[in-house]
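Study this pair:
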Amino acid sequence: MNKKNLIFGTIFITLCASIFYLSFFKIDLSFAQDVSQMQNEISERNEQIKQLQAEIDAYNNKVAGTQEEAKTLKAAINKLESQKRDLQNQIALTNLKIQNTEGDIVVTSNKISENQSVIAQERKAIANTLVEMKKNEDSNNFILNLIKNGNSNFSEFLDTAYKLMNFSGILNKKIQEITGSIDNLNANKSEYEKQKEELASLSKDLNSKQGIVVQNQNEQNDLLADTKNEEKEYQKIIADRQSKVDALQDEINDFEAKIKYTLNPSTLPSTGDGLAWPLAKFVITQYFGDTEFAATGAYNGHGHSGIDLGTAVGTKVMAASDGVVMGTGNTDAACKKASYGKWILIKHNNGLATLYGHLSAIDVKAGQKVSVGEQIGLSGNTGYSTGPHLHFTVFAADAVKIFGPTEYKSKVCGTYMVMPYAPLNAYLNPLTYLPKQ
């Protein structure tokens, strides 16, 4: 290739590159406008999210420390209405987060397409450079011959040497560019997968909370039907329920007292280790053992079997440690408003087992492996609960068992109670294994 052809080829390649990058810039400019619009919409939704979150937090702070049962029918109805409004706020918040995540996914998808397009062009540019270098691979022989025979054609020597260095520089630059684009692409793909997982989680959360709103409305309808909207009927229901709860607790205590078990402390984790808090935000409304509430005659002298963590209905409940779900259930199906309500029992890898009670939704099933911090359900007010909270019990794992549906029939309820049972000395103080607040 002579010098004239080389110059012409260089100009041609430069023009092609300029046309491509100009065209690409126009596409990118249009994309930038779309992204800008999306970002504005996301920013607007973020402001709405802040306002809704502030309302939800205010409600949560109010109810978390209030666990007294409604003393009148009107108060009970108002309590359910407040819960419904809070759940509707949570649903609106989740919908906004879903819209933002969908917008993020669109932006990330476009970034992926953009990087894939750039990589394709850079590969093509590298291929073209390698072709040109291949055409000039005889230049090395030319230079060696020139050095050997003298410098009679020194200008041609300089021209060829410059040409080789130029191709080498272009190749190195393109390799660096494609490496950077590949890194960006991989980062975008990773971000995209996280966003898709977040969207799936939000969608699941939305469905659960919509279901809880239905539960809330059904509970309100049942309350009005059972009381015939009369205060004296409500007071009678409360008294009857308390009597049933006390009788059932006596029955369970007698049953568990007959289970023989010797606790081996060496099988348990050390103090202050082994578990994480199952809620992100909460107020401890009742501790383990001989609490003030237990002293009033509750639990029939056996003390509180766990700790109560006050939080609003619909709050994310997380596994306290890695483990396997031993079982789930709903005691309301057998004996309404008398025990744990919806519950989950998890056996952990450290000698402990944990129970999560009064849930409004259950997101796991028996035999499923879970990781610490993984969502397993939503907090609620099912079972015997004077206010929305999570009941959290810790057992020695080798002692707790799930009886049912044929092993234990309650005389009080007249039904088989499917729930966890353990010898009394297998109930452990959760604060022994939880980190300090």
About this structure: The chain has six helices and twelve strands. The CA atoms of residues 241 and 338 lie 7 Å apart. Residues 154-227 form the longest helix (74 residues).
